[in-house]
Every structure is written in structure tokens, then in C-alpha cells.
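Please review the protein record below. Let me know how this chain folds according to its C-alpha cells.
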Amino acid sequence: MSKAYVSFPLAAIGLLLLLHTGCGSVGNAAGSPSSTPGVSQIGRNQVKAVGADLEGVVSYKFANANLGDEWLIITVAIGGLRGEAIEIRQQSISVRTPDGRSIPLPPQDEFIEAYPELQSTLRRALVASEPLEATRGGRRPCELDFQRIPGTGTTRTSVWVTQRQLCVGMLSFPVQGGVQPGRWKLVIELEESVLEIPFLLGD
């Protein structure tokens, strides 16, 4: 039987507009994430990447303002680029640190175990979520519900997306030694391709 949890409020649902349009580029300086092919800086703290099968946006405002925290918390929007459904598995999501370490997305049981120490940080992250205008651009909404705070609702170990859907969720990664400035990457591995979304902290 599935355990029950409360989902993260999707205050950054406005990422759906940015993901759909790709508007609002703010520069393309050499060495920045936006200098990578398929990657664009669509806001001060949002980066969009287009891969072979998926496109995604990372909003990293909270992480950028809280360097040194023991958890990296980002909001992510993911959409498919094909008509057929594409599976995104929780165990296939990770972040790459500036020093080259790969940190997998913790499963729900590990997230809940860490929740007592993470609770206040999550509350601050939710309050700090950027107030973006919400639109789906004709796409159906869905959740990246891999992690949920204690309450009601269920988590999944995989999410299926198509080009008619956009899935949004807040993802939390434990970072030994604290979140450091530098170039990070959100990595989503599929069977036939990999989506990497680079973002720069401490700029």
C-alpha cells in the first residue's frame, strides 16, 4: 500500500510558461550555462535546456541565496519532445557538483528520514519560490512527485511525460560539505539519451 504524503506547493508553476516559450534570455557570456548548445538563460535564476527527448527548466533562486546549506533545493519543470510517453525514473536523476561529484536524488524513504533536519530549510525554500505567471501553454500539468513532505498524497518512483505534458516539482539533494559556488548540473538519464541542465551558483 502506498504511503501518504503532502506534495510540495508548486509555487514555481510559472516555469511552465518559460519552458513552453523559452522567452526572456538574459545573456550568453562565454563560460556561462547559456554558452552550451541547447541551453539558454531565461531568467536571472532559471536555465532551460533542450535535449533529444526532453526539455527542462531549473529554477535555482533559493540555492543561489543559500550557499553553504547541507541540501541543494531546486525547482524543476520537465516536458517531453515526442508524442509517445517517456519514462523519467527517480533513480535516474542526479546533480553534478562543481568538483565533479554525482549526487543521486534521494528516494522517498531517505527523504522522510532526513525531514526533521530539513523541515525548516524546505519552508524557507517554499517561501522564497519565485512568483512567476502561471500558464501551461496548452499542455497538461503533472507533478514530479518523487519527494513529498509528510501528510497526504502518494509518491512515485517514475513519471511518464509526453510533448503534451509539463511536470513540475521541487527536488532536494543532500550535499556533504554544503552547497558550494560554481557550475552545477541537473542530470536526467533516459534509456537512449541524457538531459543535462547546467546552472551557475554564486554568480
User: Anything to note?
Assistant: Helices lie at 15-21, 61-65, 108-127.
